[in-house]
Q: What sequence folds into this?
C-alpha cells in the first residue's frame, strides 16, 4: 500500500489509480462518465476525505454539475463499485487505495493534516476476531482517528 502520510510521487499515484479504475470499468462493462471520472479525480487530488458538497462545488467550478443529486450519483457509483469509500466518521468520501481488489477497508484518519489512508490489515483482524467468537460479520467498518508520523514530527525510519 502507498503510505499517503509519507512523501510520494502523487502524480504517479493519481495516474495509476485512474488507469486502474478505467481498466476495471472497461472489464466490467461500467460507464465511467465524465462526471464520474472527474469526481474520482477530485477525490484523488490530495488523499483527503471530501464531503459531497465539496465535490459538488469542484464539479460546478468545472462546469460539469450544479445540483447535489449529480454529485451524489457519481459518489454512489464510485462507492458501489469499490473505487471510493465513504468515511462514516467524517460524512465524507475518499478514493480507494486498492480499486482493483475486493476488500474491506480500514481507514486511518489524521486529525491534524486530515489525510486518510487505507489498509486491509485491521479489517482482516476484525474478520478473524469475529470468526474466533463465532460471529459472522456481514458489514465491517473500521475507522481510526489519530495523528500520522509526519504531523507528530517523526520520520518513517524511527
A:
Amino acid at each position: 500500500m502507498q503510505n499517503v502520510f509519507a512523501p510520494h510521487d502523487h502524480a504517479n499515484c493519481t495516474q495509476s489509480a485512474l488507469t486502474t479504475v478505467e481498466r476495471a470499468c472497461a472489464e466490467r462493462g461500467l460507464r465511467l462518465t465524465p462526471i464520474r471520472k472527474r469526481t474520482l479525480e477530485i477525490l484523488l487530488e490530495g488523499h483527503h476525505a471530501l464531503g459531497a458538497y465539496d465535490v459538488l462545488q469542484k464539479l460546478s467550478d468545472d462546469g460539469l454539475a450544479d445540483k447535489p443529486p449529480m454529485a451524489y450519483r457519481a459518489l454512489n457509483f464510485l462507492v458501489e463499485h469499490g473505487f471510493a469509500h465513504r468515511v462514516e466518521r467524517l460524512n465524507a468520501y475518499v478514493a480507494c487505495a486498492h480499486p482493483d481488489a475486493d476488500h474491506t477497508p480500514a481507514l486511518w484518519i489524521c486529525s491534524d493534516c486530515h489525510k486518510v489512508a487505507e489498509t486491509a490489515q485491521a479489517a482482516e483482524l476484525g474478520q478473524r476476531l469475529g470468526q474466533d467468537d463465532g460471529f459472522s460479520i456481514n458489514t465491517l467498518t473500521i475507522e481510526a482517528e489519530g495523528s500520522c508520523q509526519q504531523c507528530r514530527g517523526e520520520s518513517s525510519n524511527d
Notes: The chain is about 45% helix and 15% strand. The chain has one domain: 10-152.
